[in-house]
Amino acid sequence: MALATTLMMGDPPWTDEYFMREALRLANKAAVADEVPVGAVVVRAGKIIARAHNQVELLKDATAHAEMLALTQAEAAVSDWRLTDCDLYVSKEPCAMCAGALVHTRIRRVVFGCADLAAGAAGSVINLLMMPTLNHQCEITSGVLENECAQILRDFFRQKRDARGTIGRREAH
Ligand code: ZN
Prior knowledge:
Blueprint: H1 2-9, H2 16-32, E1 39-44, E2 47-53, H3 56-59, H4 66-78, E3 86-92, H5 96-104, E4 109-114, E5 139-142, H6 146-167
Parallel strand pairs: 3-4, 4-5
Antiparallel strand pairs: 1-2, 1-3
The structure holds zinc ion.
């Protein structure tokens, strides 16, 4: 019943900002857990079916980006590896690994907050989501709650630098 309601409601409050707000909340959760603050949700028919934040440190797994974890959850939720009627919201532009996974799952649309000029694979460094030679292209919407999504990353890395300055350098990653 809830699903039918959300389908009929159409636009507000089911806006891109609404779902990005949830991705941002998850990014905050990552920051509290001392993970690089990135959060992601997968939305299907106006309903969040997966939510995750970056867990690289906790899982000691370089592939445990928010998007990867959210995609796995979403696949379980729909009992299919195809997510053709799903949209992914992520606070930071996806990297090449995540963009590759998004193409593999045939996600319909990718909405991200801030760009990643160093590693972004949704237009900044490369655009793997819209490669005409791959078998699937995703729609892209960028810059949703851009400032807040960038600010949480800036704050996190500033704190890291400050901590390094006072307690000495941790081992390089
Ligand atoms: Zn990634």
